């Protein structure tokens, strides 16, 4: 906001800027906040400079060529006199006339430091300048507490101790200033400024680029960049209290009891002890706080483990690398990352061990892609190999500001007097891992929560369960009922006094104001009935959930021994939601797959070979075609003796030569293949396993070893793979001088380019169908011999295309098309993308349980479909609805056409189960827009499975949020990479896999597991148990309170609506917190309505949770009505029994407390009997909780009744014990009345079990009597049917699963693996 005053325009900054500090941006002058007027030559003055805490001796650095400047730091509305500037002693009053500033006055500046000897006497620095008013008072206060001036030495640029870079006396924790960088923060280091306490860790100007100085830590530190600390905790020291209280008091029950406890403090209003409610509420909040703190400490421990990881950081003074923790990495640090290590921050690549500054990084943790990415340092820095050379490097980087875009970057490197543009090719992101590269060196540009990875993440959300929301709504309903009961009782009191005033004169209430009495009665009855809502409910729920989470963590069936990874429940608040999940959103790479490729089988010359022949799959001839497998030993025999030995030789030669893999010979003589594609690496390793070992790559040739003999092939051309061509080819001059074209690619594109007479096509096709049916990734191999003349003509066309400036890629594709024809088919390969153990079975069981599984991956469509087939998400008989469009209108038309087609036909459940939607990232971006999202979601939910390909981390979260927003369903997201964090946090329940991609997902998730297969037991067993147990525990908690406290309401009709309690107040409190404390815990923790084996054997039982069978509004009020019914029976019976049988021994008459104890005991026993009826399993804990609680009351009551009155507590019980326990009415009541109450419950349970059983009742019967499951076994028949459908589908559409990064030819021609690595590990 700005306003004009005279010739000056004042700029008032927002509060954010006031708290943000005075740190200038990289392109601003140091210290000055003066803006030059644009129109009338006036000076713009920020009112942040009008600071009562600022130092008037603070000299701003203002450019000397600015003829239109003002000395802004001396503006102080609290000063009586201003400082002298250039001898001008005019008072600078921003609220006075315009003569306070000479617009044409030039103010000199100094480059010598904050204080200039030309303006200020040095000895004046030892004491504050004289001033009065608020500022003078503040200075006196500052001096009193030791924050005053301490005689700063100019010669040392305010550094008082050379050994300590920070001034411990002045309390300025900013780094010391160097000769040309004294005042980067726009103020004196000797000035105390309270605003520093609130200062953010980023620059004031968020629009200017970021400047990072190379090997100048002081300059970088002065910019106060964000540190590299990562936190996924829910709370910190300052936010715990407000966030915790907000979360707790978002539960209406806690708000209700807080209000009740406040009312209890009003004198003469409360019919009970004033501390009963507030004390119990404090205990409830304390227990919840302890649970929240313990869970957050676990998150903090995980964060500390990650922040303490080590990395090599360059010490410029020593000229060598030292190992530091990730948390200590700062912007501007030069770090060295070695092979297989993770990148700790976003860095600009400076040099690598590979030729021309190349390196390979795996970004599956970021975008889900399994292919390695190629990064390259700029040539201006790629020669800096040693740590000494790197330490001598000077310059700076002007970088874009932190943002969330993973695929873009803009910056400029200033080094050696040159400006070098930087692009995403030089940016290595936090979360990526170095692969196939010895080392890289780079400079840190973004750290911590400013990295692109963390910018794509969101803060740990506070998640509330669906059950909690239902409870809140029912508490509101009970609150309304309480008000109604209070109004009825208050009206009754007023009417009673009005009608019976003649007989109630002894109360002396004739002159009482009836309106005032009514409202006082409202408060009284509010307190009396307040326990209709159980105050112990939420602490009971918290403890039950905590132990359920503990049981999940202790389950050895979900412990992954190879990596010593147990299942971890990082939060216990969501255990019940595990039993109600309807959608599972899963990542692919690292979650469903291991990210490992394995060469499994091959078809060569019409024969199929595999390492280990499956059972019943021995080779046999069917319809003239050989089916089944031979082993690899037979392959070696056929390579030497069979009629197809030359075909086998060419097949294996093609595998070992037609690729872009780079061999690296290790010290032990073994070879590691560095491949940008896991598929290519698996194929080359397969060839090596079969005796054709690729071991040398030079820029223009390769060498392979066959049976110990080395063969050299001259590499003439490479026609690279791309998603359009779906193949790659290489042209070689073979050792015998012939020129051959080797091609590998998808069967559909290879078959189209075969010559007419290919004898192995039909057999290879059958083998491909078998491979695809097994979920293997297939590839066809073919060759062609090329004459010298044909090659010469073609090569000329190819070279012209390769240097074309227009449509180069299209021309290269056209050139490749000219030579890739008349091919001779050699065979096919089968690679297994290794799934995690049990993935297909887990997905199948989840789908059978009614859970829809959506896979969201960053991989290509072909790869994703193939893996989805392997893991049984998609089956061969499914109809794939593919949406893969380039424009929004085309996407809309595609989705609408599919919807119209589906709506025009009435689909059966079988038809729906055969639908699967496949959509790519570009189309998904359009589909998620507001005008298309409804149609997209309608189509998606009609399908049994959904597969989203090439999606970004943000799109994953948006898909989850769309379903969460539009569907009344509970969602679970599971992943293992940092790119899955936003999706995990967006879902109702997030599950992280502690996998190969790091721990970021596991740290950010609600639950962490070691393998995807554990999701089956986590949901179907622990989820079902937790939901059913917690449902009963909550319903029972409400029931027992309604049973007792409604008796208070019935009693008002017999006590003239006086508000008298029928039970002593501390006894009422102990009803929940002592005598009925254990049953809800035992039911909620140990009860098993069905065993784990049965829950896994019958996944359909999981649908009970999805439908809210055990806890919903209808069931809640059924339990509440049952409580009302039981309370009415109990009260009517007790009152009538003591009405006619109130005579006690010795001629005494039972008073209200005898009646109250009897009623209390009957309610207690009835509630315990109800707990016994609903318990499905009796254990030692059940015996302690139910019979034990009643015995505890029988023993505790006489002890309490004897001791408490003698210490002035519960005086109502004085001498009552012998009258209660000596009364026959008491013992007959506690035996007969509970039986009468529970008779209806027993008969209803008997009827449901025997005449109207539900599905889980039948399973309980099977479990109880150990009935054998005699359902017919159709597995063999179903397998045959599936096979027929798979073959039919493969004939309609066969795909491939081979991918390779583009631009590989230029890279592989840079390598000569015959050269040795240099002193620093670089490849010369």
Automatic annotation (TrEMBL):
Q: Which domain of life is it from?
A: Eukaryota
Species assigned in the record:
Brettanomyces naardenensis
For the ligand (Mg(2+)), the binding residues are 587, 589, 976, 980
The catalytic activity, as recorded, is: a 1,2-diacyl-sn-glycero-3-phosphoethanolamine(out) + ATP + H2O = a 1,2-diacyl-sn-glycero-3-phosphoethanolamine(in) + ADP + phosphate + H(+); ATP + H2O + phospholipidSide 1 = ADP + phosphate + phospholipidSide 2; a 1,2-diacyl-sn-glycero-3-phospho-L-serine(out) + ATP + H2O = a 1,2-diacyl-sn-glycero-3-phospho-L-serine(in) + ADP + phosphate + H(+)
Locate the transmembrane regions by residue number: 475-498, 518-541, 1034-1053, 1073-1096, 1116-1138, 1150-1169, 1181-1203, 1219-1239
Cite the PANTHER family for this sequence: PHOSPHOLIPID-TRANSPORTING ATPASE, PROBABLE PHOSPHOLIPID-TRANSPORTING ATPASE
Q: What is this protein called?
A: Phospholipid-transporting ATPase
- InterPro entries associated with the record: ATPase_P-typ_cyto_dom_N, ATPase_P-typ_P_site, ATPase_P-typ_TM_dom_sf, ATPase_P-typ_transduc_dom_A_sf, ATPase_P-type_domA, HAD-like_sf, HAD_sf, P-type_ATPase_IV
Q: Which residues form the P-type ATPase N-terminal domain?
A: 212-278
